[in-house]
Design a protein that fits this description.
Structural class of chain B: mainly alpha
Order of helices and strands of chain A: HHHHHH
Helix content of chain A: over 70%
Number of domains of chain A: 1
Strand content of chain B: under 5%
Number of helices of chain B: 5
Order of helices and strands of chain B: HHHHH
Helix content of chain B: over 70%
Shape of chain B: flat
Largest sheet of chain B: none
Radius of gyration of chain A: 17 Å
Number of strands of chain A: 0
Oligomer: heterodimer
Mean pLDDT of chain A: 84
């Protein structure tokens, strides 16, 4: 592991960071699906404390938030060598995965709006992926 | 809606501090624990996700999803103002496309 003396403008590093953030979004999406599965354990109007307790005691919630933790660690590693303004918007990719997973796991319907949204987000992220630091 | 807007705002600060903290990471464990910027970033993130959970339980997703994407707008702003990263046209174009995409997904999600 090197310290962050590597230039922010190294395209190879930037690309690696970009791929790492995309991995983060896959893990983050899995986390969200688990959290949605576990959210039923919460009452109608949970307090902050009840929410915190449920996070630890409900397996699906615990697993979901653990995955969030892992994706945060990956994000930190990615951010060491990349521009924040190029990497952070890639997080919207999470919602593409979540939409696809919701159709697969919760049998939600796919519709033209969702499809258009997925296409627009993926295209936007492709623009970011091509944009190298000057 | 205010919950989720707050979540996106604090989340963007989380990302900012994670970025600043990540740049100062070293190999030894002590530097990880005393890296207050990193810890502050994580704290902002946790706070933001709690706000998000509250917001999602109440509001309409078609409004909430674009609010989430607003986090990217804040983050681009801080990247420019605080980190001094260049704000290029492709970044803005990509951001616009992502905002539109989030709006569409939100509209389809009801």
């Amino acid at each position: 592991m090197s310290t962050s003396t590597v230039s922010l403008n190294d395209p190879a590093q930037q690309r690696r960071s970009f791929i790492l953030v995309v991995c983060c979004t896959i893990i983050g999406a899995a986390a969200q699906v688990l959290i949605k599965k576990g959210a039923g354990a919460l009452g109608a109007n949970p307090t902050m404390l009840q929410t915190a307790i449920a996070m630890v005691l409900t397996p699906a919630l615990f697993a979901g938030y653990s995955l969030y933790g892992i994706s945060t660690i990956l994000l930190v590693l990615a951010l060491r060598h990349g521009q924040l303004s190029l990497l952070y918007p890639v997080f919207a990719m999470t919602y593409v995965w979540v939409t696809i997973l919701s159709v697969a796991v919760f049998h939600e319907s796919m519709n033209p709006y969702k499809l258009a949204g997925i296409v627009a987000i993926v295209a936007g992220i492709a623009v970011l992926g091509k944009e190298q630091p000057a | 809606m205010a919950w989720v807007m707050g979540a996106s705002f604090f989340g963007s600060f989380g990302a900012l501090f994670l970025k600043i903290g990540a740049g100062k990471l070293q190999r030894n464990l002590l530097s990880l624990i005393t890296n207050w910027r990193l810890l502050l970033g994580i704290a902002f993130y946790l706070f933001s996700s709690v706000l998000f959970v509250f917001g999602v339980r109440k509001g309409e997703l078609s409004v909430l999803y674009p609010m989430v994407a607003l986090g990217s707008v804040w983050t681009l702003l801080w990247s420019r103002l605080i980190l001094g990263e260049p704000l290029t046209r492709p970044k803005l174009v990509a951001l616009g496309m992502i905002l539109c995409g989030m709006a569409f997904i939100g509209m389809g999600a009801r």
